[in-house]
Design brief:
The protein has 202 residues and is mainly α. The protein has helices at 2-10, 16-77, 93-101, 104-110, 112-120, 127-140, 142-145, 148-161, 165-183, 191-194, and strands at 83-84, 90-91. It has ten helices and two strands, in the order ααββαααααααα. The chain has a two-stranded antiparallel ribbon. Strand 1 (83-84) and strand 2 form a beta hairpin. Helix 2 crosses helix 6 (127-140) and helix 6 runs antiparallel to helix 9 (165-183). The termini are far apart.
Length: 202
């Protein structure tokens, strides 16, 4: 094909109309191909966006279901003596003793680089949402905060002590919140300013 074009161009009597028609045809092919590719790419991007939104919604539902189940298990067991339920959440004396006895702060320290990376991605949340994120993630996606071996340690600790796993992960979430707040100059009391369930006491 290139030989034919070269011959036509080199021939003094070469057909200008032929060359012009060839250029128009080539331009049309390029335009059509580009348009076709862009359409496919656009449809593919929209499909991926919809799939990502669907997956995100499913993941949020899964987290909520797991968290609700853990909360019910905790309520049924009625064994959460480690945290003061009044906002902002804090550890009771028995909770602090449990942390010290089982070196839970050491576990947070050894995983802090991983934990901080996760929290960095949601740094625009207010103090209340940060607190809830720490506690929910510590329970529903424990492996996001801790190594596989430490996740197993927490599960074994729950089994061995007979304490619901959510009670232990709630403690871990509070430890994570306290350290993150301290490092970022956020007072724990700021949680109350954004707590939708907080009511003013008489």
């Amino acid at each position: 094909m290139m030989d034919v074009i070269r011959t036509v161009l080199e021939n003094p009597g070469g057909s200008f109309a032929f060359v012009f028609a060839l250029m128009v045809f080539a331009g049309w092919v390029i335009h059509y191909t580009t348009k076709f590719t862009v359409n496919i790419s656009s449809k593919h991007d929209r499909f991926n966006e919809r799939m990502n939104k669907t997956e995100s919604t499913i993941e949020e539902i899964r987290r909520d279901v797991v968290f609700i189940k853990g909360t019910l298990d905790l309520a049924i067991a009625n064994r959460d003596s480690f945290t003061i339920r009044r906002s902002p959440l804090s550890l009771t004396d028995s909770g602090k003793e449990f942390v010290e006895t089982n070196n839970l702060e050491v576990m947070v320290d050894s995983n802090w680089q991983k934990i901080a990376a996760v929290l960095q991605s949601i740094k625009n949340k207010n103090p209340y949402d940060l607190q809830e994120f720490c506690i929910e993630t510590a329970f529903t996606e424990t492996n996001r905060f801790f190594s596989s071996s430490d996740v197993e340690k927490l599960k074994k600790l729950s089994f061995k002590s007979g304490i619901p796993l959510m009670s232990i992960t709630r403690v871990m979430g509070i430890l994570i919140r306290d350290r993150y707040f301290k490092e970022n100059g956020i007072p724990v009391g700021a949680v109350d300013l954004h707590d939708p369930n907080k009511t003013t006491e008489p």
